[in-house]
Amino acid sequence: MQVVLVAVVVAGCALFTYLSDRNQAEEAALRQATAAARAVADSPSVREAIRGEDPSRRLQPYATDVQLHTGVDFVTIMDPRGIRWTHPDPDRIGERFLGHTAEALRGQTFTEIYTGTLGPSARVVTPVFDGGDDRRGEHGRIVGLVSAGITIDAISEKARGQLLALLGVAVAALALGAVGTYVINARLRRSTHGMNAGELSRMHDYHEAALHAVREGLLMLDGRRRVALINDGARELLGAPEGVVGRYVTDLGLPAPLTGALLDTRPRVDEVHLTADRVLVVNTSPVSGGDRKGTVVTLRDHTELQALAGELSSERGFTRALRSQAHEAANRLHTVVSLIELGRADEAVEFATAELELAQALTDQVVAAVNEPVLAALLLGKAAQANEHGVELVVSADTSVDDGMLPTGLPPRDLVTILGNLIDNAVDAAQGSPAARVTVTVRAESGGLLLRVTDTGPGVDPSQRESVFQHGWSTKAPSGRGLGLSLVHQTVTRHAGTLTLTEPEEGGAEFTASLPLEPARVGVRTDGKAAR
């Protein structure tokens, strides 16, 4: 169809050019004939010959000479009645001129297409004046007429010569258009992988349907790291506004680690990143087929899964602690039985009572200070877990939380995330230190809930306090993921609270989280130099 279109355009242009050239040839012939006729009519020798007794004898050679020099096909000189004095065919001299002469007899020069003795021709007829007084603008009376013209066959012959050149140009243009069409089509097919317009349309429809059907986040970036495509899931997970397509990744207001991952040209697999209120698993893959063509990014929401994983980890810790306690209880029971068998019943009672008093003392302390069941269960479980790692967990004397005092917008799962992760990090830090101890303070104050965890570990290097709440920071072995404190910070920030890190006078590290008792307001700025 494209080749046919090119052919039609070229043929139309060729036809227009031919007709235009033909019209121009006719106009040029008329101008040429006009110049010849006026020159003959203004010649003094012609006027003189007309006054003579035999005008044809002098005018016929003159007309033939003018015809040869000007390139016209005929020059006819006649009297005012139209009787020829000259003609290309001498036998027709004396006959009446075939054509119109009325306008010429009125003193005007005119042109016409007329069929005469030589066939159709483009001719000019002009009057011959006897001279008059030119200084007064008087031409005198009309003593003759002059007609000069070029036959249509001669004009057509000239146009046919131009037509051959025009056809050559048209054929060359058609060949060039066909080659250009082939090259463009070949390149277009390579770019569209051989798909035609209908297939591309269907693929676009499928693409749009799949884009909205996929619940995971899908983000596509072009070579300049601008958003080329984003589905509803990605817009929700990233908190991106409408009209984000075309904007640079750096303008989306995402956390620096996540922005760096999106800007990186290397592929990334199942990386965990935190936004203001979500835990995202990010995969990136560069678009194949050339350098910096773009990147495809998939996003999965692991917020709930991460919270469940944290709870599962706590449950596993509780299970290990219970298993250890069961093992220790069995050992103590064997000891009591052995003492009884040895006849030392008093010592057996004293040994059993002492162990029970230690366990009961911690339980009584927690229950007396914390009437909130979630907090009480968490502290008792973490105490057993810390004891398994050789760390003493102490509930401070000023801990006091009544039932129903937790913020209305703080779910128990978030409370476990905040306090559980802080205690776990403190226990890990305190292990191996002299008199390893973790002190926990939970206190409902006016306007807020205070959660403070202090350990006797080595503390945090002052140079790293700015990054301690960022994802990936960890004091553990390289296998540590450094996610706990970043989750704590994310949860505290989501509930419009503050999270600070200080160093107690006796050493170690002290983390303090303050949460308002009124419903949370997401996005409120946190305070404190070290708050994140």
Automatic annotation (TrEMBL):
Its main location: membrane. It is an enzyme of class 2 (transferase). This is histidine kinase. Pfam families: HATPase_c, sCache_3_2. The lineage of its organism: Bacteria, Bacillati, Actinomycetota, Actinomycetes, Kitasatosporales. It catalyses: ATP + protein L-histidine = ADP + protein N-phospho-L-histidine. Residues 296-519 form the Histidine kinase domain. The chain crosses the membrane at residues 163-185. It is found in: Cell membrane. GO terms for molecular function: kinase activity. Keywords: ATP-binding, Cell membrane, Kinase, Membrane, Nucleotide-binding, Phosphoprotein, Transferase, Transmembrane, Transmembrane helix, Two-component regulatory system. It is a multi-pass membrane protein. It comes from the Bacteria. It comes from Streptomyces flavofungini. PROSITE patterns: HIS_KIN (PS50109). Signal peptide: none annotated. Its EC number is 2.7.13.3.
